[in-house]
Design brief:
alpha/beta; 8 helices
């Protein structure tokens, strides 16, 4: 079992985080989620802070009792990152006596086409994300697979995972990538056979896929339900449901076996676009839509005023008498002081 262990300082993401070479977004500009800064995270690791930084899958985001976050090397989004993926640093990870290695991120990162040894001393700004609200998968107009995460402060495009995290990340990325490639091939070559499709997957030029274990027919069977779910949601969001009848898509649906797919929330709109990216799926864990409001006393309501946008309901609303909340809060403060004085006298 592997745990993430930062090798150096990591800055916690916050509202005023200064990312090198990033143009600041004015308060008047960041009015919606679409106006949040767009950044990249390279050499990243997903882990659970509630379980001694246990390395986990991104799919586990939102499970009760977990506090999942991501650490990675941050940069502002460049034009080249819209449809391409940059190379990550090849940091080693340690193995203990029981082969339960801890992933150690040293914050180094190299650009594509450069020698990793030559980049060992290159500065990289490594951060740890605040609470992750949701993650989304995208099939771009150029046929590329992208995975994004969102916090309160920014959108982050995930580039290459840390080498020690590659095996854990493989399941999610493979299932999404296979689904997206099935859609692309169904558009351009609807009569493509499963054997030809599998061969083309193994010859994929994707940087991330080239780092994973080769995609096999067994992967298609193993991740079948997740692949089908991704295909359905992606086609629904892009208004191409007619492709569900393509021979290749039908062949994937008939593939036997497979694991149970993780259920994810569909996007709220039929098509969400940011630049050249179109959403295929979105899992939201930030704000439940059908959550019962929390009941609090008027005193707590006065303290929490402005801190929470919803889900807080003052119990004074249930009283038959209409009493000024401020007056009620003042009474509770006086009562608390009297009780404290009584305890001191004892």
């Amino acid at each position: 079992m592997k745990h993430y262990r930062p090798a150096g300082p990591e800055e916690m993401e916050h509202e005023d985080l200064e990312v090198l070479n990033e143009s600041p977004v004015g308060d008047c500009e960041a009015e919606t989620n679409e106006d949040l800064p767009c950044r990249t995270l390279d050499n990243f690791v997903v882990f659970d802070q509630e379980c001694k930084n246990l390395v986990v899958e991104l799919d586990e985001l939102g499970i009760e009792g977990t506090d999942i976050t991501i650490s990675g090397n941050v940069e502002p989004l460049k034009a080249a990152d819209m449809d391409g993926v940059a190379s990550s640093g090849q940091d080693a990870f340690d193995e203990d006596d029981e082969d339960d290695g801890d992933i150690e991120g040293d914050g180094s990162s190299c650009k594509r086409g450069t020698d990793s040894s030559a980049c060992a001393n290159e500065f990289a700004q490594r951060i740890r994300l605040s609470a992750i609200l949701n993650y989304e998968t995208y099939l771009t107009q150029n046929g590329q697979t992208e995975i994004w995460v969102r916090t309160c402060f920014a959108w982050y495009k995930l580039l290459n995972p840390h080498p020690g995290y590659m095996a854990v990340y493989s399941q999610l990325y493979k299932s999404v990538y296979i689904a997206h490639q099935a859609i692309e091939h169904a558009k351009t070559n609807p009569a493509l056979s499963m054997a030809q499709f599998s061969r083309e997957l193994r010859e994929s030029p994707s940087d991330i896929v080239s780092r994973l274990t080769p995609i096999t027919d067994n992967d298609i069977r193993k991740y079948r339900e997740s692949i089908i779910e991704e295909i359905q949601i992606c086609l629904e969001s892009t208004d191409h449901l007619e492709l569900l009848g393509a021979p290749l898509i039908q062949a994937i649906c008939r593939t036997g076996g497979g694991q149970k797919a993780v259920k994810r929330a569909k996007t709220s709109s039929s098509s969400i676009q940011r630049g050249a990216r179109t959403t295929g799926k979105s899992i939201a864990v930030g704000e439940p839509k059908h959550e019962n409001p929390a009941c609090i006393t008027p005193l707590i309501a006065s303290i929490a005023q402005g801190l929470y946008a919803r889900h807080l309901l003052s119990v004074s609303h249930f009283d038959g008498k209409k009493e000024d909340p401020d007056a009620t809060a003042a009474k509770e403060v006086r009562a608390s002081k009297l009780q404290a004085d009584a305890w001191k006298k004892r």
